[in-house]
Amino acid sequence: TMPKEPAVLRQNILDTTAAILACGIDPKKCFLFRQSLVPEHAELAWILGCITNVPRLLRLPQWKMKRASQNNEGTVGLLTYPVLQAADILLYKSTHVPVGEDQILHLELAQDIAQHFNKKYGEFFPVPKAILSEF
């Protein structure tokens, strides 16, 4: 949600990939890909954004905190980031999502969006459940 220098962004992608592999993730046993290269994430975020109401997003505590730290000039990207997170979850029809306590409200938004979409268009997305981390 914040502009990055292209060289820094490329290095961050490489560093994150190295950290994932260093944690023991085996690319022979799972899919490892750069999410930004999958246009369906942004496409689904747009569709979901069209059925998500702004007052709900404005009530999220993360929006309020980030906006305050940016002199009350939060960006549209910051406001709609939870919808992109919902798209990231729902695109793969995830049933369970590992989250920390600080992301519960964003997962609840994804659940609400899935239920709203399903009610309007028929059962399509599973309603994802949280797997709370212990840390």
From TrEMBL:
InterPro entries: aa-tRNA-synth_Ic, Rossmann-like_a/b/a_fold, Trp-tRNA-ligase, Trp-tRNA_synthetase
Keyword DNA damage assigned: no
GO biological process: mitochondrial tryptophanyl-tRNA aminoacylation
EC primary class: ligase
Enzyme Commission number(s): 6.1.1.2
Lineage summary: Eukaryota, Metazoa, Chordata, Craniata, Vertebrata
One GO MF term attached to the UniProt entry: ATP binding
One protein family per Pfam: tRNA-synt_1b
Annotated protein name in UniProt: tryptophan--tRNA ligase
Keywords: Aminoacyl-tRNA synthetase, ATP-binding, Ligase, Nucleotide-binding, Protein biosynthesis
GO CC, one annotated term: mitochondrial matrix
Family: Belongs to the class-I aminoacyl-tRNA synthetase family.
